[in-house]
Write a structure and sequence with these properties.
642 residues, six-stranded mixed β-sheet, five-stranded mixed β-sheet, 16% strand
């Protein structure tokens, strides 16, 4: 297979990649030493040779090959087969029959939020099945003994508390039992509320400008005014740049822990810079950050060669119709004055630019907030955003799931809701119009979610060479009263033949862990257990797909969505060497066991970045000095033994 010429271009990128990545956050000090920083990054990421043997390695290639050994050199797979050992001076890992899959690719996440969490953050709370597990995760963080006196232990987002058995917050007394000598701050979902232990309560009761109201039981309420956001503000304004770098490292460690080796970040719901301040404010929720600066700490780590999972960065634009931008004497919406950020982005940013570890994407999760024609000014701005992307030859995405129209309360019992795909149809019709006016087929536009898209809509999108990344996170929902599927309609999506990825949409409304999504896509079960439903309730009847199909969506399908199908998503000679060794056989264990899978070893760019010690060894150090072939022939696609 011929490799694309866009990004592996390494000699060019060693002077230009960091400049492109720095442009994500507006440049700043990072651009002052582009060449030296890029060279330092390259040196620090030297990749040794690695051979893994005696495994069940599911390559996810076109033949569905399962092999026993792979060899890695220079960050790429150089041999894949049953005798892949011909790499001199390689570290050899005996897999002892373990199952291996390609590194998972999260095609829709808001990872940058996880990488900016204040305090000593415990992302692992989302892996807990109940409150006791949450308390254990907090206690384990304290047991590492690296949290300074007075510093907060925090845990935020991830769709909590609805992802736990009890669907409740831990109490102040329970938090005191888990961690008594450090303040603890828990922030639930993307907008609060929050909960603290006794030391956290004392801290927030002492702050001013603004004050924070803490209930006697440690609860900090959401609502309006949102006290949880005010509390979050006080932690954010105390974060140093080094704190943010630590948070970014912790986020990478967690994503490697759950087997996600590439994050395709849909950034955050950007503030409207025409009317809103971007620096931290007491009313900012967890999903609000300065979208020009929020990647600075991550990019600094990358410049130092310390980024150890892959990141691709889309640009979400959230400027809808803004009355303040209408010029004197002009009639609304004054379309030429709208969308100033998007216009500047399209003129000054490079799409799909960077190196193998950090690079830009394009426009997504959307170019402007969705608006229907019933909102004439909002619709005119949304439509103009699509036109601007098409005219500039940029890839573009929209986000619509579809659903059902409400059931008339006067309807007889047993009445089924009528599917509502009106908004998806608006997107499809607009994409057709953009193809007619500009030609967008080669741009690979996308639709996020598409849970209830019709056969006709999927066919139209496929003709336009569009892809879909669909929702794997509906597993916290309750069954519909009419018994219809909550969605997505997975078999329909798979059978359409459209390029298809599966995502979790973490890290606010739900968890980051991909095994929850893989379980839901293959079982349709939620996480509401009872004596009658010990494995969860069926909320997506008749909409299950096979484990192989679901894994394809999280690997090959997601790679297409990232424009990286020639580099990522399968264990094939010449591809970037990302893989995950699992503690259980994903393809054979029970549904409940599959949901609880945890990687025991994660490899990114040919380096071990997560290791539980089950197979011996440990994480590769940043300064390993094994061979660092920088030429294409060092990681070529020669034929390996089968």
């Amino acid at each position: 297979m011929k490799r694309k010429s866009g990004v592996s271009r390494r000699d060019f990128l060693k002077t230009g990649a960091l400049a492109g990545a720095a442009a994500v956050s507006g440049g700043g000090a990072l651009t002052a030493s582009v060449v030296s920083a890029s060279e330092k990054s390259k040196r620090r990421r030297k990749r040794g040779s690695l051979v893994l043997v005696n495994g069940r390695i599911h390559t996810m290639d076109d033949r569905g090959s399962v092999v026993s050994a792979v060899a890695i050199r220079g960050g790429r797979f150089v041999e894949v087969g049953h005798g892949a050992r011909d790499v001199d001076n390689a570290r050899v890992i005996d897999l002892r029959g373990r199952t291996v899959v390609p590194g998972l690719i999260e095609s829709h996440t808001h990872f940058v939020s996880l990488a900016n969490r204040p305090g000593y953050h415990v992302a692992q709370w989302e892996l807990a099945s109940n409150v006791a597990g949450v308390l254990a995760a907090l206690a384990a963080r304290r047991a590492r003994r690296d949290v300074p006196a007075g510093a907060f232990i925090t845990a935020m987002g991830a769709g909590t508390p609805n992802i736990w058995l009890e669907r409740r917050q831990p109490t102040l007394a329970e938090l005191d039992t888990a961690v008594s000598d450090r303040p603890v701050f828990l922030y639930f979902g993307g907008g609060g509320p929050a909960r603290v232990n006794s030391l956290g309560k004392a801290f927030f009761e002492s702050v001013t400008n603004p004050t924070v109201t803490v209930q006697a039981d440690g609860a900090i309420l959401g609502g309006n005014p949102n006290q949880a956001n005010a509390a979050l503000y006080h932690l954010r304004i105390r974060q140093t740049f080094e704190d943010k770098k630590r948070s970014a490292r912790d986020a990478m460690a967690f994503t490697a822990q759950v087997g996600v080796t590439t994050n395709f970040d849909q950034t955050l719901v950007a503030l409207n810079s025409a009317t809103q301040p971007l620096d931290p404010q007491p009313n900012h929720a967890l999903f609000n950050l300065d979208h020009y600066r929020m990647y600075d700490a991550y990019l600094a780590l990358h410049a130092e060669g310390k980024a150890f999972t892959r990141l691709q960065i889309n640009f979400l634009h959230n400027q809808g119709y803004t009355p303040e931008l209408v010029r004197p004497g002009q009639a609304p919406p004054d379309i030429d004055a709208q969308l100033p950020e998007l216009r500047e982005r399209l003129k000054n940013q490079f799409q799909f630019f960077g190196d193998d570890m950090v690079r830009t994407g394009a426009i997504g999760e959307w170019a402007a907030p969705f608006a229907a024609p019933t909102n004439p000014n909002g619709y005119a701005v949304w439509l103009e955003a699509q036109r601007l992307c098409a005219k500039a030859r940029w890839r573009n995405e929209n986000s619509q799931a579809g659903g059902y129209f409400p059931i008339d309360p006067n309807s007889p019992p047993g009445t089924l809701a009528v599917p509502n795909t009106v908004n998806i149809q608006q997107v499809v019709d607009t994409y057709k119009a953009m193809e007619a006016e500009f030609g967008i087929k080669e741009l690979r536009w996308g639709l996020q979610h598409a849970d209830h898209a019709t056969v006709e809509q999927l066919t139209a999108l496929k003709v336009l060479n569009c892809g879909v990344s669909t929702s794997g996170f509906r597993w916290t929902s309750a069954p519909r009263v009419d018994g219809q599927p909550v969605g997505p309609l997975f078999p329909r999506l798979v059978q359409s033949g459209i390029p298809l990825a599966l995502h979790q949409d973490g890290v606010h409304i739900t968890a980051h862990n991909p095994w929850f999504a893989l379980h839901y896509a293959t079982t349709g079960l939620n996480n509401i257990v009872s004596a009658t439903s010990p494995q969860g309730q069926q909320i997506n009847p008749g909409q299950q797909i096979s484990r192989q199909q679901a894994m394809h969506m999280y690997t090959r399908g997601a790679a297409w969505f990232c424009n990286r199908e020639d580099d990522l998503g399968q264990i094939t000679e010449g591809y970037l060497a990302d893989l995950v060794v699992l503690d259980k056989d994903y393809f054979r264990v029970s549904d409940a066991e599959m949901r609880a899978i945890r990687p025991i070893l994660t490899v990114v760019d040919g380096k071990v970045v997560h290791d539980t010690g089950v197979l011996g060894g440990g994480r590769d150090d940043d300064d390993d000095d094994d061979d660092d072939d920088d030429d294409d022939d060092g990681g070529g696609r020669g034929k390996g033994r089968r």
